[in-house]
Fold this sequence. Notes:
Layout: E1 3-15, E2 18-29, E3 33-38, H1 44-49, E4 59-64, E5 67-68, H2 74-77, E6 81-84, H3 97-107, H4 112-125, H5 141-153, E7 159-163, H6 171-186, E8 190-194, H7 198-204, E9 207-212, E10 215-220, H8 222-226, H9 229-234, H10 241-249, H11 259-269
Parallel strand pairs: 3-8, 3-9, 6-7, 7-8
Antiparallel strand pairs: 1-2, 1-4, 4-5, 9-10
Helix pairs in contact: 3-4, 3-5, 4-5
Amino acid sequence: xxTVIAFEDVWYGYEKETPVLKGVSLEIKRGEFVxxxxxxxxxxxxLAKHCNGLYKPTxxxxxxxxxxTQDMSVxxxxxxVAYCYQNPDHQIFHQTVKAEVSFGPKNMGLPAxxxxxxxxxxxxxxxxxxxxxxxxxxxxKGTRQKIAVAxxxxxxxxxxxxDEPTTGLDYRGxxxxxxxxxxxxxxxxxxxxxTHDMRLVAEYAERxxxxxxxxxxxxxxxxxxxxxxxxxxxxxxEPPAIYRFGEAAGFLAPxxxxxxxxxxxxTRRD
Length: 270
Protein backbone atom coordinates (compact mmCIF):
# COMPACT_ATOMS: atom_id res chain seq x y z
CA UNK A 1 0.00 0.00 0.00
CA UNK A 2 1.18 3.52 -0.76
CA THR A 3 1.61 6.19 1.91
CA VAL A 4 -1.11 8.83 2.20
CA ILE A 5 0.08 10.68 5.35
CA ALA A 6 3.65 10.82 6.65
CA PHE A 7 5.12 12.37 9.81
CA GLU A 8 8.84 13.06 9.76
CA ASP A 9 10.37 13.88 13.20
CA VAL A 10 7.38 16.08 14.10
CA TRP A 11 7.51 18.32 17.16
CA TYR A 12 4.64 20.51 18.22
CA GLY A 13 3.91 22.68 21.24
CA TYR A 14 1.22 25.15 22.19
CA GLU A 15 4.11 26.85 23.97
CA LYS A 16 7.74 26.39 22.94
CA GLU A 17 8.77 25.31 26.44
CA THR A 18 6.21 22.48 26.64
CA PRO A 19 6.14 20.30 23.50
CA VAL A 20 3.08 18.07 23.09
CA LEU A 21 4.55 15.99 20.25
CA LYS A 22 8.18 14.96 20.57
CA GLY A 23 9.85 13.70 17.41
CA VAL A 24 6.97 11.66 16.00
CA SER A 25 7.65 9.73 12.80
CA LEU A 26 5.09 7.42 11.17
CA GLU A 27 3.34 6.61 7.92
CA ILE A 28 -0.36 6.02 7.36
CA LYS A 29 -0.93 3.74 4.39
CA ARG A 30 -3.79 4.19 1.96
CA GLY A 31 -6.76 2.03 2.96
CA GLU A 32 -5.71 1.39 6.57
CA PHE A 33 -8.02 1.41 9.60
CA VAL A 34 -5.91 2.97 12.35
CA UNK A 35 -6.79 3.59 16.00
CA UNK A 36 -4.80 6.12 18.02
CA UNK A 37 -4.96 5.42 21.75
CA UNK A 38 -3.34 6.69 24.94
CA UNK A 39 -4.10 8.36 28.23
CA UNK A 40 -5.37 11.90 28.62
CA UNK A 41 -2.73 14.39 27.52
CA UNK A 42 -0.73 11.77 25.61
CA UNK A 43 -0.85 13.78 22.37
CA UNK A 44 -3.20 11.61 20.33
CA UNK A 45 -5.66 14.37 19.37
CA UNK A 46 -2.79 16.77 18.66
CA LEU A 47 -1.27 14.13 16.39
CA ALA A 48 -4.57 13.59 14.56
CA LYS A 49 -5.10 17.32 14.00
CA HIS A 50 -1.82 17.45 12.10
CA CYS A 51 -3.30 15.06 9.51
CA ASN A 52 -5.46 17.75 7.90
CA GLY A 53 -3.48 20.85 8.79
CA LEU A 54 -5.54 22.03 11.78
CA TYR A 55 -2.12 22.10 13.45
CA LYS A 56 1.20 22.62 11.68
CA PRO A 57 4.49 21.22 13.08
CA THR A 58 6.71 23.44 15.18
CA UNK A 59 9.57 21.36 13.81
CA UNK A 60 9.62 18.49 11.35
CA UNK A 61 7.33 17.75 8.44
CA UNK A 62 3.88 16.30 7.71
CA UNK A 63 2.98 15.36 4.15
CA UNK A 64 -0.35 14.36 2.62
CA UNK A 65 0.05 12.58 -0.71
CA UNK A 66 3.68 13.82 -0.73
CA UNK A 67 2.69 17.50 -0.34
CA UNK A 68 3.88 19.42 2.74
CA THR A 69 0.95 20.56 4.90
CA GLN A 70 2.83 23.80 5.63
CA ASP A 71 2.18 24.78 2.02
CA MET A 72 -1.55 23.95 2.05
CA SER A 73 -4.59 25.54 3.70
CA VAL A 74 -6.99 23.55 5.88
CA UNK A 75 -9.67 24.07 3.22
CA UNK A 76 -7.49 22.49 0.57
CA UNK A 77 -6.39 19.64 2.83
CA UNK A 78 -9.99 18.90 3.86
CA UNK A 79 -10.69 17.70 0.33
CA UNK A 80 -8.32 14.81 1.06
CA VAL A 81 -8.40 14.48 4.87
CA ALA A 82 -11.67 15.22 6.69
CA TYR A 83 -11.83 15.67 10.47
CA CYS A 84 -14.97 14.76 12.43
CA TYR A 85 -15.00 16.33 15.90
CA GLN A 86 -15.88 14.50 19.11
CA ASN A 87 -18.88 16.80 19.65
CA PRO A 88 -20.97 17.04 16.45
CA ASP A 89 -22.43 20.33 17.70
CA HIS A 90 -19.03 21.89 17.05
CA GLN A 91 -19.62 21.22 13.33
CA ILE A 92 -23.35 21.62 12.82
CA PHE A 93 -24.71 25.13 12.32
CA HIS A 94 -27.33 25.02 9.53
CA GLN A 95 -31.10 24.83 10.02
CA THR A 96 -31.70 21.67 7.97
CA VAL A 97 -29.80 18.45 7.49
CA LYS A 98 -29.48 18.94 3.73
CA ALA A 99 -28.20 22.50 4.14
CA GLU A 100 -25.59 21.26 6.62
CA VAL A 101 -24.37 18.47 4.37
CA SER A 102 -24.26 20.70 1.29
CA PHE A 103 -22.10 23.38 2.98
CA GLY A 104 -18.77 21.75 2.09
CA PRO A 105 -19.55 20.97 -1.55
CA LYS A 106 -20.83 24.54 -2.04
CA ASN A 107 -17.58 25.95 -0.67
CA MET A 108 -15.71 23.69 -3.07
CA GLY A 109 -17.54 25.41 -5.93
CA LEU A 110 -19.32 22.35 -7.25
CA PRO A 111 -22.23 22.92 -9.64
CA ALA A 112 -25.74 22.63 -8.21
CA UNK A 113 -26.52 19.29 -9.87
CA UNK A 114 -23.34 17.71 -8.48
CA UNK A 115 -23.99 19.15 -5.02
CA UNK A 116 -27.43 17.52 -5.04
CA UNK A 117 -25.88 14.21 -6.05
CA UNK A 118 -23.09 14.16 -3.45
CA UNK A 119 -25.45 15.28 -0.67
CA UNK A 120 -27.93 12.53 -1.49
CA UNK A 121 -25.11 9.96 -1.66
CA UNK A 122 -23.71 11.08 1.70
CA UNK A 123 -27.08 10.96 3.45
CA UNK A 124 -27.79 7.57 1.94
CA UNK A 125 -24.41 6.29 3.15
CA UNK A 126 -25.20 7.18 6.77
CA UNK A 127 -28.83 6.07 6.57
CA UNK A 128 -30.36 9.54 6.87
CA UNK A 129 -31.82 10.10 3.39
CA UNK A 130 -35.30 10.31 4.94
CA UNK A 131 -34.58 13.34 7.18
CA UNK A 132 -33.03 15.81 4.74
CA UNK A 133 -35.48 18.58 5.64
CA UNK A 134 -35.32 18.02 9.41
CA UNK A 135 -33.63 20.38 11.87
CA UNK A 136 -30.42 18.73 13.12
CA UNK A 137 -30.54 20.22 16.62
CA UNK A 138 -33.68 18.27 17.50
CA UNK A 139 -32.06 14.95 16.57
CA UNK A 140 -30.43 12.48 18.96
CA LYS A 141 -26.69 12.58 19.64
CA GLY A 142 -26.19 9.52 17.44
CA THR A 143 -28.09 11.09 14.55
CA ARG A 144 -26.17 14.37 14.90
CA GLN A 145 -22.95 12.38 14.79
CA LYS A 146 -24.10 10.75 11.54
CA ILE A 147 -25.01 14.18 10.12
CA ALA A 148 -21.47 15.35 10.91
CA VAL A 149 -20.06 12.30 9.13
CA ALA A 150 -22.35 12.89 6.13
CA UNK A 151 -21.17 16.51 5.91
CA UNK A 152 -17.57 15.38 5.47
CA UNK A 153 -18.49 12.49 3.17
CA UNK A 154 -20.12 14.99 0.81
CA UNK A 155 -16.65 16.42 0.16
CA UNK A 156 -15.50 12.94 -0.93
CA UNK A 157 -12.34 12.82 1.20
CA UNK A 158 -9.82 10.03 0.89
CA UNK A 159 -9.06 9.93 4.63
CA UNK A 160 -11.56 10.31 7.49
CA UNK A 161 -10.36 11.18 11.00
CA UNK A 162 -12.92 10.58 13.77
CA ASP A 163 -12.29 11.93 17.27
CA GLU A 164 -14.07 9.74 19.86
CA PRO A 165 -16.98 8.89 17.49
CA THR A 166 -18.92 6.88 20.10
CA THR A 167 -18.71 9.23 23.10
CA GLY A 168 -22.11 9.81 24.68
CA LEU A 169 -23.85 7.10 22.66
CA ASP A 170 -25.73 4.15 24.09
CA TYR A 171 -24.76 0.60 23.11
CA ARG A 172 -27.01 0.54 20.04
CA GLY A 173 -25.76 3.95 18.94
CA UNK A 174 -22.15 2.83 19.35
CA UNK A 175 -22.73 -0.26 17.25
CA UNK A 176 -24.48 1.72 14.51
CA UNK A 177 -21.71 4.31 14.39
CA UNK A 178 -18.89 1.76 14.25
CA UNK A 179 -20.66 -0.34 11.63
CA UNK A 180 -20.98 2.84 9.57
CA UNK A 181 -17.25 3.46 10.00
CA UNK A 182 -16.55 -0.13 8.99
CA UNK A 183 -18.64 0.29 5.83
CA UNK A 184 -16.77 3.49 4.96
CA UNK A 185 -13.49 1.64 5.36
CA UNK A 186 -14.64 -1.24 3.17
CA UNK A 187 -15.75 1.26 0.53
CA UNK A 188 -12.16 2.48 0.21
CA UNK A 189 -11.67 5.24 2.81
CA UNK A 190 -8.60 5.37 5.02
CA UNK A 191 -9.90 5.58 8.61
CA UNK A 192 -8.15 7.11 11.63
CA UNK A 193 -10.04 6.85 14.94
CA UNK A 194 -9.11 8.42 18.27
CA THR A 195 -10.80 6.54 21.10
CA HIS A 196 -10.64 5.44 24.73
CA ASP A 197 -12.84 2.40 24.04
CA MET A 198 -10.43 -0.51 23.78
CA ARG A 199 -13.18 -3.00 22.95
CA LEU A 200 -13.96 -1.08 19.79
CA VAL A 201 -10.27 -0.87 18.95
CA ALA A 202 -9.88 -4.64 19.28
CA GLU A 203 -12.99 -5.33 17.22
CA TYR A 204 -12.61 -2.84 14.37
CA ALA A 205 -9.06 -1.51 13.99
CA GLU A 206 -6.39 -3.16 11.87
CA ARG A 207 -3.55 -1.11 13.36
CA UNK A 208 -3.11 0.52 16.77
CA UNK A 209 -0.80 3.43 17.59
CA UNK A 210 -0.18 3.98 21.31
CA UNK A 211 0.78 7.51 22.40
CA UNK A 212 2.41 8.43 25.71
CA UNK A 213 3.85 11.82 26.64
CA UNK A 214 3.98 12.98 23.06
CA UNK A 215 5.71 9.92 21.65
CA UNK A 216 4.65 6.71 19.91
CA UNK A 217 5.46 3.87 22.30
CA UNK A 218 3.90 1.01 20.33
CA UNK A 219 2.57 0.48 16.81
CA UNK A 220 1.09 -2.74 15.50
CA UNK A 221 -2.06 -4.82 15.07
CA UNK A 222 -4.38 -5.27 18.10
CA UNK A 223 -2.98 -8.68 19.17
CA UNK A 224 0.57 -7.28 19.06
CA UNK A 225 -0.34 -4.19 21.09
CA UNK A 226 -2.81 -5.65 23.58
CA UNK A 227 -0.49 -8.46 24.68
CA UNK A 228 2.04 -5.98 26.11
CA UNK A 229 0.52 -5.29 29.54
CA UNK A 230 3.53 -3.48 31.01
CA UNK A 231 3.78 -1.06 28.10
CA UNK A 232 0.01 -0.43 28.18
CA UNK A 233 0.05 0.19 31.92
CA UNK A 234 2.84 2.75 31.56
CA UNK A 235 0.79 4.47 28.80
CA UNK A 236 -2.34 4.48 31.02
CA UNK A 237 -4.21 2.09 28.73
CA GLU A 238 -6.14 -0.95 29.90
CA PRO A 239 -6.46 -3.75 27.33
CA PRO A 240 -9.90 -5.18 26.47
CA ALA A 241 -11.34 -7.79 28.82
CA ILE A 242 -10.80 -10.64 26.34
CA TYR A 243 -7.05 -10.01 26.31
CA ARG A 244 -6.89 -9.73 30.10
CA PHE A 245 -8.82 -12.99 30.31
CA GLY A 246 -6.42 -14.67 27.89
CA GLU A 247 -3.41 -13.51 29.88
CA ALA A 248 -4.93 -14.70 33.16
CA ALA A 249 -5.78 -18.06 31.57
CA GLY A 250 -2.17 -18.51 30.52
CA PHE A 251 -2.50 -18.29 26.74
CA LEU A 252 0.64 -17.08 25.02
CA ALA A 253 -0.87 -16.71 21.57
CA PRO A 254 -3.14 -13.64 21.18
CA UNK A 255 -6.75 -14.32 20.19
CA UNK A 256 -8.89 -11.68 18.45
CA UNK A 257 -11.98 -10.25 20.13
CA UNK A 258 -14.60 -12.46 18.48
CA UNK A 259 -17.10 -15.04 19.69
CA UNK A 260 -15.13 -17.73 17.86
CA UNK A 261 -11.98 -16.58 19.62
CA UNK A 262 -13.66 -16.77 23.03
CA UNK A 263 -14.97 -20.28 22.28
CA UNK A 264 -11.50 -21.32 21.13
CA UNK A 265 -9.97 -20.07 24.35
CA UNK A 266 -12.54 -21.91 26.49
CA THR A 267 -12.04 -25.12 24.51
CA ARG A 268 -8.27 -24.95 24.90
CA ARG A 269 -8.70 -24.21 28.60
CA ASP A 270 -10.73 -27.39 29.07
